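Sequence in, structure out. Go.
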Amino acid sequence: MNSFLLAFQFLTIIPIKIKNIEEKNIPESLVYFPFVGLILGIILWSAANILSILEFSPLAINIIVVILLIILSGGIHLDGLADTADAFLSRKNKEEMLNIMRDSHIGVMGVLSLISILLLKIAFLSSISLPLKNISLLLMCVISRWSPVLSMFYSAYAREEGKAKVFIEGMNRKIFLFSLLIAILCVTAIWGLRGLYIFLIASALIFLVNKFIERQIGGITGDTLGAVSELTEVMVLIVVCILRK
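Output:
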């Protein structure tokens, strides 16, 4: 139970008090990441439908839903995206890029990456009808919250110390397979075989993005995990738009 609650604590701003946190419970919480994504998706789905009943414009609904997800997640993934963009677009060497990601200040490239990712989400959500938008919100939350699990399973940690190290060192085949099973059950329940197709496509893209990251800095970091999660949300929306007919 503690592992399940920890997953909520790591991925949302929902205040949860957990007693007797053991180090083994921390990586085990990865099993429940897709389920936390499903709950976030349900919250966004509910908000979108309530706003639709209140006759908000589609654009207003999309903007509010995107902002709501930022609030619920505490903007942690966007922070990782901005830091990763600043580092990777600096054209520095590995050590300098890792130092840039540790810098608390945001650069021009980080700001542009935030603007771009938010506009892309709103644009793709605006390209689909409300019924399919509900499916899209559920799928993107589930798959994007599962993306760190895939990244941690296949990649090493790029730093000697850091917040993500305990997750990566504790990752094993059992945790990965259970998390994978939950993710597959969720996406299949949401949109049947098409949900599974999107999951497989997104997983392949996540794997390729992580390989690129590894070539640049020799592994992954907490920031790159956040960046991959944000990119996964957009990738899912793109694939839904392609498969919507």
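Check: The chain has a mean pLDDT of 94. Residues 60 and 104 are 32 Å apart (CA to CA).
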